[in-house]
Design brief:
The complex is a heterodimer of chains A (about 550) and B (about 350). Chain A is of the alpha/beta class and about 550 residues long. Among the domains of chain A are: about 120 residues, ATPase, nucleotide binding domain (Nucleotidyltransferase, domain 5, 2-Layer Sandwich), CATH 3.30.420.40; about 100 residues, no CATH class. In chain A, the strands form seven sheets. A six-stranded mixed beta sheet of chain A has the order 3-2-1-4-11-12, with helices on both faces. In chain A, strands 13, 14, 15, 18, 21 and 22 form a six-stranded mixed beta sheet that branches. The longest helix of chain A has about 30 residues. Chain A is globular. Chain A starts with a strand and ends in a 13-residue tail after the last strand. In chain B, the strands form two sheets. In chain B, strands 2-1-4-10-9-6-7-8 form an eight-stranded parallel beta sheet, sandwiched between helices. In chain B, helix 8 links the parallel strand 9 and strand 10. Chain B has a single domain, classed as Histone deacetylase domain (Arginase, Chain A, 3-Layer(aba) Sandwich), CATH 3.40.800. Classes of the chains: A alpha/beta (about 550), B alpha/beta (about 350). Chains A and B meet through helix 5, helix 11, strand 26 and strand 27 of A and strand 1, helix 1, helix 4 and helix 9 of B.
Chain lengths: ~550, ~350
């Protein structure tokens, strides 16, 4: 049996799954001020009358990091950046303890200016004097040559509790995002560490000793141990949990839309042949941009509890939530009230709902039923409009080869999967309105916990081989080996595959769920100088795709 | 926070799977390091910089500007059509006011392709700027367009296509044709009888540095643009004036290119040549992008940049000043020259010097 637990904004869901299906599910309120006790009470209720010895797998998804970012309760972190030529690194300042230093590496990974040891020692002293205990070091093009970062770490290692290096964050290029991501990892490290050590200890006391897996934003899991190096990857794992929970119901070989309709917002995501679509570079929310691998999701400020208003004769829905629906004692009419009025939902106080919808109806000059119908229909239209915009955006994403331009994949979903409380009503309405096959995911109230429980371990490696310089590297994995001039595409793929396997095992993957390997990117270039070939550059990214572990997907149907 | 001063559109199409042949300067690798630099700098994340996906240019698009012999399909590949299509997309974004200006970083280039194209000529098959200009004129009814060609080679294709067109001001700054392909672009080449002075060719001596280049921009190109009052300024942004370019002998630099962009304020820039793919292009392209977006570019300096080594000889400065004066004289007399060209209908014979 396996356990999935997902801490949400208002409540926390947990399930136990066996090969027969959902064995048990519980829901406890989330106390944002005490997530540890929230998680613990989830486990306590789940494990009542269950033998913990039968549990083979535990996956946890929390809002710990997300909350820390939102509430600005992160640890002060020192950041040292060496930029070299380009945009002024001051633009990427992370806070008071931010120091651009000399030293420069170019796009081929060649050193163009050295690090100044005196300068580093000086900054180290200032940081220590300021009481900073955690440090991030990021150099431009460190993914091509991390030697400056390593050198700086060596100089300052004994003065700090933990030093985070930019090249470990991701194999992707993007200096500003790497700075932000390294900063995030360093800033939530101690919070993450103490939280999960406490969880691990408490679970062990309950007799639950299987290794804990943590859900990441890309819908995959990582072991508790590897999460200590990249705690930032747990940010926004909540939406990922729900989307993973929809996968069992997604059509094979086709594209699907996932809509998770919550109280305040609706999350929108896409599945291609049962695998979720990922962000090309990393999580971005507003002006915050990172290199954290993530599912491609977007949210629209519309949900069951969105406030309804009439402005100059026009109905507006959300984006704010002023409380629950009036049917449940809230202050303003909401789409949920409309569903109560229409008789779709049976719980809640119908009279109060009707009173709320009536005010809207009067202003719109409609009957109560007519207004409720209009509210419901408008919700569907707004959500679907946003969804279609996202599809257009995905399909107009720039490509960089003639082949991709001509043969590139076009997303064309043929099915919609709806999650969240009002999913069944919405599914039916959307199908009526848009004539697209739409399904409310069964047990959708705990789909997030199911998604967490079933998510398999994911990881990615990025390799760069340069036969002119005679080296193949995957600096993110601290891997660098000399190669000969005859190093080939096959050699690269073999090296990448081995590194990926190793990384997956270290991240807690079990061997039977490691066959979904995908080459995300492959490029090959001749290096020519003065009209004669000097060597070749090969680049590849290989990943273990997000998806579900084997042995459970069928039982959910 | 970092933000573009005005919205700038970018089409980035490095055609990583297309080359003239494997060791040719116009090959897959050409924009690789530019992409690395631009990606590492996070340029596509900067608010106000918007990346567009190119489209395929059609045969009809080409036919507005050129005659292809035997036909469009025979002398183009998809990469040529995407390159021209990239320029078209930027034109739409600028003309539709989605962005203030835009830069098409596309390859292969186009400015050596003439009115009649038989295929490859100076790495160019179809003239992507001319195709874009005719597209803009047809679709958006814009009349007066200025094209400033800052590639190190004479933009003889564009020159040829707009030779007789007084509404298109074509100015090419290039290394002296006596020392460089295509061996044309001398000051006396001024345009057809009705368009004299609307083609200005400014040859620069080998060794011209940033100082000389910007002198011409400030003392000739900008005053001429002021008088011509174009509705749209296009920059054929070749980058082979760079001091490390393997095919040319000039001493221009990334800072110079960025300043040039700030001075010219092109509505649309289209990448042309530039073959110092590792030491120049990453920095020059970054400089141009930042210049167009109005973002501080003072940190964009080549790692091996040494202004002392690139200083321009005094004799060159004099030479450049003389050429500038000569071009300004031609420009001021353009109307007299057109009047003196003879009555309409009279057969005109053109003398053309090619080195």
């Amino acid at each position: 049996m396996i356990i999935g637990l997902d801490v949400g904004g208002t409540h926390t869901d947990a399930v136990i799954l066996s090969s027969k299906g959902i064995e048990k599910s519980v829901k406890v309120p989330t106390d944002p001020a005490d997530l540890f006790n929230t998680v613990l009470s989830g486990f306590t209720r789940l494990l009542e009358s269950i033998d913990p010895g039968q549990i083979e797998r535990v996956v946890i998804s929390t809002t710990l990091t997300t909350n820390a970012i939102v509430q600005q309760t992160m640890e002060p972190v020192g950041i040292i950046v060496s930029a070299g030529p380009g945009i002024d690194p001051e633009c990427f300042r992370t806070g008071d303890h931010y120091y651009p230093v000399s030293g420069s590496i170019n796009h081929r990974g060649r050193e163009k200016a050295p690090v100044n040891e005196m300068q580093i020692k000086d900054i180290g002293k200032k940081l220590v004097d300021a009481g900073v205990q955690y440090l991030g070091v990021v150099s431009k093009f460190c993914v091509r040559n991390p030697s400056h970062e390593i050198f700086i770490k060596r100089i300052l290692n004994r003065h700090f509790k933990q030093i985070f290096l930019g090249h470990h964050v991701s194999g992707n290029l993007n200096f500003p995002r790497r700075i932000a991501t390294t900063h995030l990892n360093a800033a939530v490290f101690s919070l993450h560490k103490s939280f999960f050590e406490a969880v691990k200890k408490s679970l062990a006391e309950k007799g639950l000793t299987v290794p804990i897996q943590i859900l990441k934003a890309d819908g995959g899991t990582m072991s508790l141990e590897s999460s200590m190096h990249f705690p930032g990857q747990t940010v926004l794992s909540g939406p990922a949990a729900s989307i993973m929970g929809a996968i069992p119901y997604a059509p094979a070989g086709q594209d699907a839309i996932v809509l998770d309709i919550g109280g305040t917002t609706t999350d929108i995501a896409f599945l291609v042949d049962k695998a979720p679509l990922l962000e090309p570079v990393g999580i971005q929310r507003g002006s915050y941009k990172s290199l954290i691998r993530s599912l491609r999701t977007d949210s629209k400020g519309i949900g069951g509890d969105s406030a309804l208003r009439v402005n100059k004769g026009e109905l507006t829905i959300g984006p704010d939530r002023q409380g629950p629906a009036m049917a449940f004692g809230g202050p303003l009419p909401t789409p949920t009230d409309a569903m109560v009025v229409l008789g779709l939902m049976e719980n809640g106080n119908r009279e109060k709902a009707l009173a709320g919808i009536h005010t809207i109806a009067r202003e719109l000059g409609l009957s109560d039923e007519g207004a409720a119908e209009k509210v419901f229909k408008t919700c569907c239209t707004i959500i679907l409009k946003k969804t279609f915009e996202m599809i257009d955006q995905i399909n107009s994403q720039p490509v960089y080869t003639v082949h991709d331009f001509l043969e590139g994949y076009k997303l064309s979903p043929q099915k919609i999967l709806v999650l969240g409380g009002p999913a069944p009503y919405f599914a039916k309405k959307i199908e009526d309105l848009y004539q697209i096959d739409t399904l409310a995911v069964p047990e959708s109230a705990v789909a997030n916990a199911v998604g967490a429980a079933l998510a398999r371990t994911t990881c990615e490696v990025s390799l760069n081989a340069d036969t002119e310089q005679g080296i193949v590297t995957a600096h993110e994995e601290d891997f660098a080996e000399p190669i000969s001039k005859t190093f080939s595409e096959d050699d690269l793929m073999e090296t990448a595959y081995n590194l990926l396997q190793e990384k997956a095992i270290n991240s807690g993957a079990d061997p039977e769920n490691m066959d979904e390997v995908e080459v995300v990117e492959f490029q090959k270039f001749n290096i020519v100088r003065n009209f004669s070939p000097r060597g070749k550059i090969f680049r590849t990214k290989m990943q273990l795709k997000p998806g579900l572990i084997k042995g459970y997907d069928k039982v959910l149907h | 926070m970092l933000k573009a001063m005005h919205k700038t559109g970018l089409v980035f199409f490095p055609a990583f799977d297309w080359a003239i042949d494997p060791t040719h300067p116009e090959r897959e690798e050409r924009l690789l390091y530019t992409q690395d630099q631009v990606t590492e700098e996070g340029v596509f994340d900067i608010p106000g910089i918007i990346e567009y996906k190119p489209v395929l240019a059609t045969a009809e698009d080409i036919r507005r500007a050129q005659f292809c012999v035997p036909d469009e399909t025979s002398i183009t590949t998809e990469s040529h059509l995407i390159s021209a299509g990239g320029a078209k997309v930027i034109a739409d974004a600028v003309m539709g006011r989605e962005v203030k200006n835009g830069f098409a970083l596309v390859r292969p280039p186009g400015h050596h392709s003439m009115r009649v194209s038989h295929g490859g000529r100076g790495f160019c098959h179809i003239n992507i700027e001319a195709i874009m200009v005719e597209y803009i004129r047809t679709r958006y009814k814009v009349k007066r367009i200025a094209i400033i060609d800052t590639d190190c080679h004479h933009g003889d294709g564009t020159d040829n296509i707009f030779w007789h067109d007084p509404d298109v001001l074509f100015i090419s700054l290039h290394q002296d044709g006596r020392t460089m392909f295509p061996g044309t672009g001398f000051p006396g080449e001024l345009g057809g009888p009705n368009a004299k002075g609307s083609n200005l060719n400014i040859p620069l001596p080998p060794g011209t540095s940033t100082e000389g280049y910007l002198y011409v921009i400030n003392n000739c190109v900008l005053p001429v643009l002021d008088e011509f009052k174009p509705d749209l300024v296009i920059n054929s942004a070749g980058q082979d004036n760079h001091y490390t370019d393997p095919l040319t002998n000039m001493n221009f630099c990334a800072q110079g290119y960025a300043q040039l962009t700030t001075l010219l304020k092109p509505d649309i820039a289209v990448l042309e040549g530039g073959y110092a793919i590792e030491g120049a292009l990453p920095y020059v392209n970054l400089g141009i992008i930042l210049g167009m977006a109005g973002i501080d570019y003072t940190g964009v300096v080549e790692p091996d940049y040494n202004p002392e080594k690139l200083k321009q000889a005094v004799s060159l400065t004099d030479k450049i000043k003389k050429t500038t004066d000569q071009i300004n004289t031609y420009w001021s007399k353009r109307q007299q020259m057109r009047d003196a060209a003879g009555p309409p209908g009279e057969i005109q014979v053109r003398h053309k010097e090619i080195f």
